[in-house]
Histone acetyltransferase type B catalytic subunit (Capsella rubella), 467 residues
Amino acid sequence: MVQKQQAAAGPDTEPKKRRRVGFSPADTGVEANECIKIYLVSSKEEVDSPDISSVKPVDLNDFIDGDGKIYGYQGLKINVWINSISLHSYADITYQSTTNGDKGITDLKSALQNIFAETIVDDKEEFLQTFSTQRDFIRNMVSDGEVMHSGATDGSNNNAEMVSSDLQVIRMQIGSPNAGLLYSRLVPLVLLFVDGSNPIDVTDPDWHLYLLIQKKEDKDDPLYQIVGFTAIYKFFRYPDRLRMRLSQILVLPSFQGKGLGTYLMEVVNNVAVAENVYDLTVEEPSEKFQHIRTCLDLNRLRNFDPIKPAIDSAVQTLTKGKLSKKAQIPRFTPPLTAIEKVRESLKINKKQFLNCWEILIYLALGPIDKYMEDYTSVITNHVRSDILGKDIETPKKQVVDVPSEHEPEASFVVFKSLNGEEANTNVQVDENKPDQEQQLKQLVEERIREIKLVAEKVSMGCPKAKI
Ligand SMILES: CC(=O)SCCNC(=O)CCNC(=O)[C@H](O)C(C)(C)COP(=O)(O)OP(=O)(O)OC[C@H]1O[C@@H](n2cnc3c(N)ncnc32)[C@H](O)[C@@H]1OP(=O)(O)O
């Protein structure tokens, strides 16, 4: 897999003689992100094809021990080809020369194994053969799985209905035959494309994989390909319920932005409802995924009649008078009964419902421009209590230690506590912007932007998958 290239040397480029010195030359190295390119391919003809574009992983520097740089090579280029059918990979490594400088020569094989582990194949010919020898890998692996949804078969009025008929969501318990092996081949994709993720524990049978599979008609035999997947943990809640926690979700880069992440999430939501779990939560959702999840949940909540009176009542209070002029702004949180009904029927947990609640109110206000000032006061109140843990009533001064490079012992800020109680000391204080009100204003502006964006998406209608 390693090829040394001769540096192009003509009469004009003949190397000049250099004086030998008694110490190793300084080597500045090259960042992994700069010299490694990743390609996802589904046929051997695509390998080395100029028509195939590389895909962008999260941060390759993270996988290189030390400072994320590779040392000792001149003109280093690493093209990694991943067979998206068998999930094997091959690294084509070329460089002009090596120099054993002050940082030594990075062991490329072990660096690549940090990501690709046993999926990496050393010999190119052997890799090219995996497209035919391992053609049915996915098909064999999922043969024992449970089909949770097939595209275009569901009569319900949701996104899942629109998904092309060659797609299926198949569930496998991690302890079942094949699921562990299949996941171990997916790990490099998780590491490359899901920011901050760690592989799940394949020995823990409470994990389930929901695999988004595309079944392409191909001559006599259909070809199965993984388009995306999610790993979900099902765990006990005292005294007699189960909860679901979505921990990793990935749609392969070339399939992103086509509504498939939405579709997969929708199928998982339907499973949570059908199996009547206590709730469905998400572990550290990325911004993009949270956006998709909120759009989906808002569509469900807008069709959920039991909360309509609570929304109407909140809207009525908000439209009655100038809230922003009042000394104390009402909380504008949903009643406990609504929180409970939403969790029990839709499996949306309290935190996510509160997040959606603000947008539900925004959507129900009309004309929005007339009430924007009051609405902003409500959001300000929410943001403030999120940061400090409580609502503002009587401001009282508080002193909080903050980290500082200058005089660590003597660094603190004074701010007004929201209700006289001890404030949340996890509050993030930016030393460059000591004005807390200014910081709060910024957070409120960001939140309002977010609300507007989601509200706009939801008003335009649920995105439909096209593949
Ligand atoms: C718990 C965690 O794991 S958090 C980490 C989440 N995973 C990752 O970040 C890994 C990398 N990213 C991904 O795998 C994917 O992008 C996911 C899972 C986040 C989302 O899946 P996707 O299939 O790309 O999402 P989907 O297509 O449903 O929606 C994304 C966008 O495409 C838009 N979209 C949906 N359908 C269509 C369509 N038919 N045509 C064009 N655009 C569409 C959506 O409106 C959305 O746009 P927006 O962001 O402007 O609102």
User: Anything to note?
Assistant: The chain has twelve helices and 16 strands. The radius of gyration is 28 Å. Residues 6-21, 153-157, 391-427 have pLDDT under 50 and may be disordered.
